[in-house]
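Q: Hi! First time asking for a complex rather than a single chain. Here are the components, and I think there are three in total. Is that enough to go on?
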Amino acid sequence: MKLMLTGNYAAAYGAKLSNVKVVAAYPITPQTTIVEKIAEMIANGEFSGRYIRVESEHSAMAACIAAENTGVRTFTATSSHGLALMHEMLHWASGARLPIVMSVVNRALGPPWSIWSDQQDTISQRDTGWMQIYTENNQEVLDSIIMAYKIAENENVLLPMMVIEDAFILSHTMEPVDVPDQKDVDDFLPDYNPKYYLDTKNPMGFGSLIMPEGPFQEFKYKGYKAMKNAIDIINNVDKEFGKKFGRSYGGVVEKYRMENANFALVIMGSIASTAKDVVDKLRDDGLNVGLLRIRSLRPFPADIIKEALSNLKGIGVFDRSYTFGNGGALYNEVRNAMYGKNIFIKGYIGGLGGRDITPSIIEKIYMDIIENYEKGVDGGYEWVGLIGDKRWE
Amino acid sequence: MNDDFPTPITTQPSTFNKTGTWRTFRPVIFYDKCIRCMICWKFCPEPAIIIVNAEKYTAPRDAIKKLDAPEINYDYCKGCGICANECPTKAIDMVFEESLEERE
Amino acid sequence: MKNLTIPEEEYMFPGHTACLGCGATIAMRYTLKALGKDTIITIPASCWAVIPGVYPSRTLDVPLLYTAFEVTGAAISGIREALNAIGKDNINVVGFAGDGGTADIGIQSLSGAVERNENVFYIMYDNEAYMNTGIQRSSSTPKGAWTTTTQVGKIRDWKKEKKKNLVEIMVAHNIPYAATASIAFPEDYINKLNKAKNIKGPKFFHVYATCPTGWRISPAKTIEIARMAVESNVFPLYEVDHGVYNITYRPKKTVSVKDYLMAQGRFRHLTDEEIKEIEKDVMNDWNLLQQKESFTKSLKKVE
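A: Yes, that's all I need. Here is the structure of the assembled complex.
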C-alpha cells in the first residue's frame, strides 16, 4: 500500500510492522512526530505495543534496556541532545548485547541552538557499540527499521542498531512510501525469541561486576566479533529483503555509477540524493565520476570500502560533522581503510546546523578533486560553504 | 563461565564462597539457656543460622522441648555478633576464633 | 514446631560479600520473604550491586537486573510494561535502590515511574550516605553526621541540612501506598509488604538499614541502633495509605535522641547544644506526624 509519508511517519510504521512490544521515548524536535504517530496508532488500536511516556531520554534508553532484558522487542527514537543525554545508556545497551532498535533523527548539537540537520549527534556515539545505518530517503527509513530487527536479533550479532535520518529533509518531508503488508513482514521477521532473559523460572543476574583477571576483556572481544559478523549479516538481510519486497539498498554500502569511475565522493545520508544528481550531470558532461554512499558506519566495512575505491584516481569524503581532530570522522575512517593505496584523498566538512549542501557545492567538490589529485596523495581537508568564502559560492 | 553467554550472566549461587573464613569472633550457642525464640535466626544478615530438629539439642525445660532449635552455620558466619547482642537470654557468647584454633 | 514470626523460606544465599552486620542485606532478606519467588528485582550501582559477589556469583534466588545508578524508576517501568505486554502481570517488579540512587541521582526516574502509576514496588534501603563509594554524604544523611564529604575538621563542616523526606515526596505524587520500615521491626515491614501486594500502582518503602561501617559502630549493634532510631522517634514507623497517615508503632519506652546519637561514632563530635537542636527537630517532626495522622484520618472525602 503506497502512502505519502514523512520520514518520521515511515519510522513509526516500521516500528508498528515490526510488532514492537514496548516503546519508551521522550519527545525532541525533530523526532516528535515519530512518537506522536505511535501514540495515535495505539489510541486507534493499530499498534499492539505499550508506550512508556518516560520523563527523559536517559530513562527512555534505560526502560528499553530493562524491557528488552525481560525478553520483548523494544523501540525508541531520539535526536541531538536527547541522544547525547542517553550516552551512558548507549554503552550499557551494547555491553548488555541487547538488540534494541532506535530511530535517530540527525540534528545539530548546541550551542548554538539548532534544530536542523547535521550528523554530529550520531558521529559522537561511534564508540558506543551501536550499529549505525544512515538512510537516504523515507522508503529506506521504513525498510531499514524492519531489517534492523532482523540484523540485531541474529544470535551472531545481538547488538543494538540506530536507523538514522536527516532532520526535516527526511523527517518532515513527505514522499511516496510503499508500506508492506503485515503478513509479509511477519514472514520476513519472526518473533523475538531470546535465549537469555529475566525469567522467574530460571533466576539469573544480568550485568554484574567482573575483576581485571576475570573475563571482562573476553566479553568485550565477543562484542567486537559480533560487530564484525554484522557486516555479512547486514548484506544478507538486505538481499533477502530485496527478494521478498523488491527493494534493496546494497547492504553496508551503495555504489552509484562506480563502474569505470576515476573520481568518487564518499558520503552518508540524504545529501547522497543531491550528489547522485550531480554525478548524472557530470557523467553527461563526459567525466567518469561516481558516488559511494556509506549506509553502515558501524560496523565499518573497511575491506568493502577499500575494494570499491581501489581503482580510483581521486577520492573525496564529505563529513556533515566535525571532530576537532585531523579532519572529519568519515574522512579519517575512509583514509584509514585506504592506507597503503597511493590514491589522492581529501576531506570536506560542511552542511553543519542544517546549512544547505547545494548541487553547485557538490559539483565544485568533484572539480576540486579532479583539479588536485595529481598534486600528491594527501589532500588534507577543508571546510566548505563558510559564509564569505567565495570559492564555494 | 558459560561460553555461550554474550554478556555476563550470573548463575552460580554464592554458597561456594565460604565467608566463615572472615571471622575474628565466633558465636557459640549455649543450648541450656536457649529458649528457641529464633530471634538470632531472624536477624542474621547472611543468613548463617539454620533451623534444626528439636531433638538435636537438649532443651532447658519441657515447654521448649518441642521447638526446633537454631544452629550456627560456621561455613558462612562472619562473626558480626548481632545474634549474641539480640539474644534475650544471653545464650550466645562471642568467642575469639584464634583461641579456639589453638585449643584444637 | 517452629517459633517464627516471619516467613521461613529464604530467597537469598549466604556467601555474599556484604560487611559484617550489614543492614542492607537484612532489608533484602525480609523484602524477598514477603514477595516470594514470582519477583523480578533491579539493583542500581550501590552496595547491593557488589554484595552478590563477582561474576559468576549470585546471591538472590530471583531474577536480577543490575542497572546504572540513576535509572531504577525507568528500569522497573520497562520490566513492568514488558511483562504486561506478554500477559505476565502477576509477577512482582521491585526496584531495590539505596538512598543515593533514590533521593539524589535517581529521583527523576523515581518521580517519572510513580507519576505514570506503574504497578511496581520501590524499596529504598537507607544507610544514610553513598556507602558503596566510601561514605560520602547524600541528601538522606541526617543532620549532624560526619561523612567523608562532610568532615568535622577545624570549621566543623559536618552535615547541617536535614534529611530529605522521601515518603512525603511520594505522598505528594499521590501514590496509593508509601511507608517507612526498619530492619529492627521485620514483622511490621513484612506486614506492610503483604498489604502492598494487594494494591495496584506504585508502592514505596523507605527502609532504615544500619551501616556499621559508615556509622562507626560495632557490627553487633546493627539491630540495636535501628531499634533505638525508632524508639527515640528519630525514625518513626508509619504508612500513608491512599493519603491517610497511620503510625504503625508507638514507641513503648523512650530512648533519648542523645543516647541514639552518642551510640554512633559519626555523631561523636556533636556538642550538647547541637544535640538539643537535633532533639527539637525530632520532637517537632514527631508532633507534626501525629497531627497528620489524626487530621488525615478525620478527613471526609467526596464520594
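A: The CA atoms of residues 35 and 64 of chain B lie 6 Å apart. Let me know if you'd like any chain examined more closely.
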